[in-house]
Amino acid sequence: MHTTAESSRPLRGPYDTVFVDIGETVVHIHPPFLETVLAIAADFGVRHPPDNFEQRATDIWRRDVTASRSRGHSITTSASSRYWHTHYARLGEALGLPDPHDFSRALYQRFSSFEAYQPMPGAVEALRALNRMGLRVVAASNWEGWLGRLLALLDLERFFAAQVVSADIGAEKPDRLFFERGLAIAQADRPCVLHVGDSLDADVNGALNAGIDAVWVNPSVPADAPVPVIASIAELPDLIRPHIAPVPWALP
Description:
Blueprint: E1 17-20, E2 27-29, H1 33-43, H2 53-66, H3 77-94, H4 100-111, E3 117-119, H5 123-132, E4 136-141, H6 147-153, E5 162-165, H7 166-169, H8 176-186, E6 193-197, H9 200-209, E7 213-217, E8 229-230, H10 236-240
Parallel strand pairs: 1-4, 1-6, 4-5, 6-7, 7-8
Antiparallel strand pairs: 2-3
Helix pairs in contact: 2-3, 3-4
């Protein structure tokens, strides 16, 4: 398990509810994103991508997710389509494709299909462990309206007591409104909730600004991490076990 900076906000609790981000926390694209991009690029005649493509793709991602146009992109189907088609077209341009728009449409079709996603290693076992510890687990994610169907198809829906999805509630992380509506949907008390996710901005800072404790899922160990860090959700049950509220029933 990762160590954390001394200045990070410690876990308090006791918690009875855990908000869990979905993308790159519970499920991920499989095969991996860049591998899929390059496989589809090969269908468009790109046999030898630029040597610096991986770094350029990372830069494009960072620029796009921090751009003002990214805000609200998961709330409506049209906003999502515009955002992702623009992002994928930028990747096509970085690959030197003369017409990146057909490439963008192919990527969008792939990444908006259920078949593109799988549970992350250890996710099923972690969610099962959280349930058995008596915690109410809530899916809390910036995602389009089809997330519920994806969770059902992946046989993950059974682990969640409720779902808080940006497309359904009209607010995205890190907006405080997302977390306020999440508390209402989950019927949870703020001090008893822990939020877990992979995005420093959306998940960690969003939760902290809403007065909710957080855990950051990050394979590296940032020296200035503001909250406890775990490499994957598989580490979550052991991390929070000392901080959970007693269950209101007698265990066998």
